[in-house]
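Sample intake sheet
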Amino acid sequence: MDSVPNTPPGQLRRMAAVWEQVLKKGGIGPQDSFFTLGGQSVMAGTLVRAAGERFGVRIPIRTLFEYSRLGEFTDHVVGLALPAAPTTAPPPDAVSTGTVPPDVPLEMTAFQRRIWLAEQIDPSVRNHVPLAWSVAGRLDPDRLRVALGRLVAEHEILRTRFVDEDGGWSVRLREPWLPPLELLDLGEAPDGTSDGIADDTTDDTTAIPDGVTEWLEAALRLPFDLESGQLLRAALGEFADGRQLLLLCVHHMVIDGESIPVLLAELDRCCATPDRPRQVVQYREFAAHQREQRDSASWHTDLAYWESALEGASADTPLPAPERPEPNGAFRLPLPAGLLDSLRAVQSEHGVSWFMVAATALAVSLHRWTGLDDVTFGSPTANRNHPRFAGLFGPSLNTVVLRSGVTADSTVLDVLLRMRGEALGALEHQAVEFDDVLNHVKPARRFGHTPYVNVTLNMNLLDDHVAVLDGARLTPLLIDELRSDYAKFGLTVTMVQLEGRLIGLVSHRGDQLGAEGARDLADRLAGLLARFPEALDEPVLPRD
C-alpha cells in the first residue's frame, strides 16, 4: 500500500507547483513519480535547484532519485535541516554588468579553449551548430532582423572576438553588429516538413527542402572568422504556400544546447520589446566564476572524486578501425515506437532516468562488442548548477566520464544500478573541468582520440526547444545527414526526446570506425533498448 505523505497540504502544493513548472505538466499528485512523468537527468538538476530555492534548502541531486514520488520528495525536503548557502547575487534582471571597452582582454572558459585547440590542431574541423525550425504562424523578416541586432547588442557572447596575440589567444568584445538575414525561396513544400520527424521504426529521414540542406551545408563548410566577433548566420526560408523555416548556424564557441532555449526566449523578447533593453548576466561573469572556483575546497573534492573514479581505467575503448579510412557516417537507430512508455516501469522501480537506461544499454553493448570487462564513455553535461547562471546565454558544457566494470556473473540489472551511481556521481562532481581531470590523472594519449570519451553518449531534449517567437510557434527539425559532417569522436550516440518520442542518432568518424562496425554496434544497442524491461536478468558477458 502506498504511503501517505506527512507534509502539510500547503507545503505539498508549493512543491507540486515547482514540479509542474519544471515538468510542464499539470495536476501532479503525491504518488506521481518523477520518472513516470517523463523526468530525466538534466530535468532533475533543474528541479532540485528550483525546489531548493523555493524551500530555502540545499538538495543533492540524488535525493530526487531516492525519493522519486512527489509526496516522499516533499517530506524529505521539508525535513532537511541544512539551509542553503546565502547568496548575495541579485536576480538576473537586476544584475549590473557595466560595459567593457574593446581593448580589455577577457577570460576564455575551459570549454572554449578546448574548441579553439581542436580547430588549431585540425583546421578542417568545424565546430558549427546548425539549427532549423519549422514556423507555425508567420515571422516578419524586418522585425526578425531588428530582434537579431538587439540580441547581439545585449548579449556580449554574440559579439566576442577570439584574438591571436603573440601566439596566445585572448578574448575581446566588439561593437554591436547586425546579423544579415538571408531570405530563401523554398518553392513547393515536401511532405513531412511540419515536424521534421521520421517514423521511429525506420532510418529514413524526413524530406527536407533542397534549399534548406544546401544553405546549412554551405554554412557548415564555411569557416567562421573567430577574430571577427560575428559567429552567427541566419536565414528565413519560405514555401510557395506561405509556410516558413528559420535557420541558424552558430559557432560552438558561443552556444551550446542549453543556450538554445535562452536564445529563442531572448529573441522573442527582443521582437516584442525592441526598444526596451534589459541587463543580463554576461558570459564573462560565468568565465570569472569558473576561474574563482578552481581553488575552492569543493573543486579539489571533485578532482579527488574523478581521480578515484578513473583509477585503473583504460583511457581508450577500442573501436574496430577499417583497413582503409572511410567517410564519416551518420544514421538513425531503429528504435521501436513507444519506447519511452515501455521504459517507465523500469525507471520507477529502480529510480533511474531514461538516460541511465540508455547509458546501460550502451555499456552492455560495448562490453559484448569488445569482450572487455571495463569500458568508459563520455557524456556532455550542462555545468549550470549556480542559480545565477541558469538562464545564461553561452556554452557551459563540461564532459564527464561514465565507467562500467563487470564480472563473469554481472547482469544487465547490475550494470543499470552501476550506471545509476555513475551518473549521479558525475552530476554531483561535474564542476571540475574535464581538461583539469585529464591534466591531473595524465592518461596515455593517442592522436585523434580523446581519453576516456572517444565513445560519447549525448542527450538532446528538443522537447524543451519548442518555443514561441513573435507569436509564431517554432518546432525543431532533425536533419540527420548533416551529422556526419561534424563527427568529433570515434563514435557518438545521441538520444533525442522529441514530442514524446525517443529517437536515436549515431555518428562515427570513418578513420576510426567503419560503417559496418557502426551498424553492428547500433543494432546491438537498439535491440537491447527494445527489449530492455525483459533483459534485466540477462548476463552481460557470455557464460561458459
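Comment: The chain is about 35% helix and 20% strand. Residues 81-97, 193-206 have pLDDT under 50 and may be disordered.
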